[in-house]
From TrEMBL:
<dbReference type="InterPro" id="IPR038401">
    <property type="entry name" value="Rev1_C_sf"/>
</dbReference>
<dbReference type="InterPro" id="IPR031991">
    <property type="entry name" value="Rev1_C"/>
</dbReference>
<dbReference type="Pfam" id="PF16727">
    <property type="entry name" value="REV1_C"/>
</dbReference>
<feature type="domain" description="DNA repair protein Rev1 C-terminal">
    <location>
        <begin position="30"/>
        <end position="114"/>
    </location>
</feature>
<protein>
    <recommendedName>
        <fullName>DNA repair protein Rev1 C-terminal domain-containing protein</fullName>
    </recommendedName>
</protein>
Amino acid sequence: PRPPQSIPTIKVPRPAKPTFTTLKLSKESDLRGAIKEWICEFRDEGPYGEDVDALIKYLRKVVLEERDLGKAVGVVSWIEYVSSEKDERGIWTTPIKRVRDGVRGAARERGLGDVVFD
């Protein structure tokens, strides 16, 4: 009798985690620091629309590809917390709503229920 042949296996690498900014941030602690700096830097004039779009795109990938809704919600909650301390005129209110809506849309696309941020 012939010995059983081993079946070749293929190792597929895990997809890279989505990253945010040119610094390639992906850990929540790093994101918190970058977001705080961002809000402080733009507290008087508010964020650029394309920066908000980039954050929405990143968080969408976190929900859909990284499959970490908790991380996305945590980032949004952090933005709300920091802006509540730094944004006295409410300039960040509309951008934050857009980010929330983006995370909710990604969660719906993934088949999850409504997202609560509080």
